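> tool_call: predict_assembly(chains=two)
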Amino acid sequence: MPDPMPDPMSHAMPDRAAALAAALGRVRADVSPALAAPVRRARAWVDAGHLGLPRSVNVECLNGTLGDAVDLARALTGCEPVEVYAEGTATGLVASLLMTHGVVASLVVADAPGLSSITARLIGSHAHTEIDLAAPAVRRHGPDGMRLLPAEAAPGEPTAAAPTGGSPGYTLHDAAIAADTTAAAHQSIATGQPVAVPQEAPHDGHRQRPGQPR
Amino acid sequence: MIGVAVLGSGAIAADHVSAFARVGGVEVTHVVGTDLARARRIAALAPGCRAGTDLGDALADPAVTGVIVCGRTGDHPARALAAIAAGKHVVIEKPPARRLADFDAVVAAARTAGVRVMVGQTTRFQPAVRTLAAAAAAGEVGTPRLLHLAWYVGHVWPGGWNSWQLDPAASGGHLVHNGMHPLDLAIALLGDRPERVFTRGWCTHAPGMPTPDSFHVTVRFAGGAVALAELSYGLRRPGDMLRRMTLTGETGTLAHHTAADAALGGTPVTTPPASVADALYHQAVHTADVFAGRAAPLITLEQSRAALATALAAQRSLEAGAPMEVTLDA
């Protein structure tokens, strides 16, 4: 089993990029919610043209992380973060992303007492869709309250693939983008200005640091 | 009997007349518009209502207790000032003005004349919004920290490319014209002073639109709370609606989604979700109480001033592509 690494995607931890760099060579053992069945289904709808061209996406992660939100925005649209503006509060943040092809994303990450959920809304030129990572599910009600029984298999493909030599569905490249966007968001909070998200260099494979001129 | 005159002959004026016609103890006395035929069609929605094109006739009528100022935003301050000068109470459709100074002049005149003025922020009267606001005010979430509003609709602009609402010079821009709704609600729910905004806007369907059909605004408040307000008129099918609100606080979370409402199926007819329906009627009931002196305005002038200042800053942010400070100074 690959070495697990701590989840440094927390919105409270701005130096995700440094943590990721230290973990180079390892394979992530945790699974991004971007691989969940509702996300993959919605992306298939996008790729089939059912929504037309994606124009905007909103992701709300209650008791989730900014890395999760970035992963979802990318997974749903197939576009990459270009610039981020963010405002933070003691218990979360809101972020406005400009993505490639002019797609716009808004991300909400918050500590939400009593409610853990990850949802997203995608508006295309021809249709829109909304996904809830906890759906579809069957609700079980009992003396201890309500419990969701997922009606689809939980995502597991990437962790299953890695030990057997298969290609993981979520790579260090994906994690680096989430990390760099998170770092850029925290830089934006600190400066009160939009910050460019580092882009993949064309030849050497290294990513520029947040805020560097491109 | 509370007499109400509606100034305007567009779609929202018709909605106001229909709403007031259902309120007991209210008589819609006048519809005043620039197009007499249209004003007559709207006046026909309320028994005994007269249509005309002369504002002075309506304002000189002692049966008129208060007026509803509709029509183009640029005309709002002058119409409100005329009504105030005639001693009438006033509800102004949002946005109340394109400039903060114009709104301040209306407020100052109302205070001098001793009449009541309220901005018609209709979303505040939606059943789900009222419930969420009451729960927040009762301390259900403790100190509010983060608000997320996502309001999407399928919409066709009246007048097509000639719609004045699409012209930022006439409407103040989409952030002012419709952005005031979520910004007003954010200010009311968080109970704080907005400090800084950042806006992104985009066109979902028609790239040549002179104003974006969709936008989102981040708002930073003086006490450290933040809000994200998303507004999209870009859903494909007219009548489609997706509205959700999430308010997180130190001790709890309030959340609402129109998807939880009962839905009509098997027919092309679309009906508004029960959680947002009849807001204008509820506003009309409240307006009658305000005009009669039975209630203080739910939407305060301080909140409306802050919402307009925030919307103006958000529009500047859209145009500049940069964050903007919210200027509340006169």
